[in-house]
């Protein structure tokens, strides 16, 4: 009988991993209460995997069918139905199945990125409707087309290639992306707003905007953390904001790390004056749909709208740059990098250290230094 193993996909300290199912002392499988299952087998010296459903029954059925298929191949027999299933691998259906796994195991924003790129690729790859027919040249043409739209090779196209590589790798077929040269990843230096720019910006804020952007600047919160922030997460007496998972919004902090960030008495006074929507736990709910989450596009446009009112270049104003500014201000104030790492929720210290850049004010001081002759 062909050997086909059932694996379970779980989250570890190093990321997602496929692991064997646990067995008791009698070597019987101890089925978990839930999760995603895969089957694994070897064919022509290669290890292959494919999705096997969400329940033990689905996993066992997938294992049974694969064993039957492999045994039939070894015996030179043809089994009606199995060959028909294996003859083609519709690209659109493969994308849909892959995205189901991404939606289950990854964050909503990650799922949105994968969905956008893969559906765009499936459309661009037409009329090739079978995933097995996609060639390295198809991948190159897609990336070249994306580049022609003005997208950056070191950021956006790098991510596009990673997404396509992960997709084809999961299918258990020859991965065409492996034959496409890797794109160098480029990390732009974080840019912080100056005090003068911030003064102009906040001078044009109304009370709601002042509370929102003050919290971003003072606590360095990410967009999803702001969208899902509850009043119960704010400890105004002790001046703390707690970043917590919100299953009701399918929200998890980045790297699955909950954290607490202190803030100043000045910010506490601003937040005390911030109006609370009746019967709504959200601190910054949607203005248009009370009680609902503020949309990412609303927060994005709000930042640019305030900048435009202040006579600033709206193209240079982004919500995430307030987080960059918070990190830069902390470090320049003398707060040690390990503490800043904790407040920002960075898994890697190297990510925090990128904010250790000289300020423009320091460069001005350098200009004032004279040579000793």
Report on this model:
The chain is of the alpha+beta class. The protein has 15 helices and 7 strands. It folds into 3 domains: 82 residues, no CATH class; 89 residues, Orthogonal Bundle (DNA polymerase, domain 1), CATH 1.10.150; 169 residues, hpI Integrase, Chain A, CATH 1.10.443. The strands form 2 sheets. The chain has a 4-stranded antiparallel beta sheet with strand order 2-1-3-4, with helices on one face. A 3-stranded antiparallel beta sheet has the order 5-6-7. A hairpin with a 4-residue loop joins strand 5 and strand 6. Helix 5 runs antiparallel to helix 6. The longest helix is centred in the first third of the chain and has 20 residues. It is globular and about 85 Å long. It starts with a strand and ends in a 5-residue tail after the last helix. 21% of the residues are buried.
Task: Spell out the key features of this protein.
373 residues, alpha+beta, DNA polymerase, domain 1, hpI Integrase, Chain A, 3 domains, 4-stranded antiparallel β-sheet, 15 helices, 7 strands
């Amino acid at each position: 009988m062909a050997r086909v193993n059932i694996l379970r996909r779980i989250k570890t300290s190093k990321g997602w991993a496929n692991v064997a199912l646990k067995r008791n002392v009698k070597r019987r499988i101890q089925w978990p209460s839930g999760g995603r299952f895969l089957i694994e087998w070897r064919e022509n010296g290669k290890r292959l995997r494919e999705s096997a459903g969400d329940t033990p029954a689905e996993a066992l059925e997938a294992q049974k069918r694969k064993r039957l298929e492999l045994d039939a191949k070894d015996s030179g027999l043809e089994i009606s139905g199995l060959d028909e299933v294996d003859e083609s691998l519709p690209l659109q259906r493969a994308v849909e199945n892959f995205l189901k796994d991404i939606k289950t195991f990854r964050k909503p924003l990650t799922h949105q990125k994968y969905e956008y790129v893969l559906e765009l690729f499936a459309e661009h790859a037409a009329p090739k409707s079978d995933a097995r027919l996609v060639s390295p040249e198809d991948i190159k043409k897609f990336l070249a087309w994306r580049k022609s739209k003005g997208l950056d090779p070191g950021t956006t196209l790098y991510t596009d290639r990673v997404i396509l590589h992960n997709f084809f790798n999961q299918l258990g077929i020859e991965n065409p992306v492996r034959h496409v040269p890797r794109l160098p990843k480029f990390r732009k230096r974080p840019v912080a707003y100056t005090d003068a720019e911030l003064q102009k910006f906040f001078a044009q804020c109304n009370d709601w905007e002042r509370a929102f952007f003050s919290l971003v600047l003072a606590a360095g919160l990410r967009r999803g953390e702001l969208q899902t922030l509850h009043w119960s997460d704010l400890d105004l007496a002790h001046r703390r904001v707690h970043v917590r998972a919100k299953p009701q919004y399918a929200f998890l902090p980045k790297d699955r790390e909950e954290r607490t960030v202190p803030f100043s008495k000045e910010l506490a006074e601003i937040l005390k004056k911030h109006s609370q929507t009746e019967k709504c736990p959200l601190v910054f709910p949607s203005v248009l749909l009370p009680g609902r989450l503020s949309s990412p596009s609303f927060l994005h446009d709000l930042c640019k709208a305030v900048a435009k009112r202040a006579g600033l270049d709206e193209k240079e104003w982004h919500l995430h740059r307030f987080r960059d500014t918070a990190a830069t201000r902390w470090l320049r104030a003398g707060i040690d990098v390990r503490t800043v790492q904790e407040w920002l929720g960075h898994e890697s210290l190297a990510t925090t250290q990128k904010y250790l850049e000289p300020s423009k004010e320091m460069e001005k001081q350098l200009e004032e230094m004279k040579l000793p002759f």
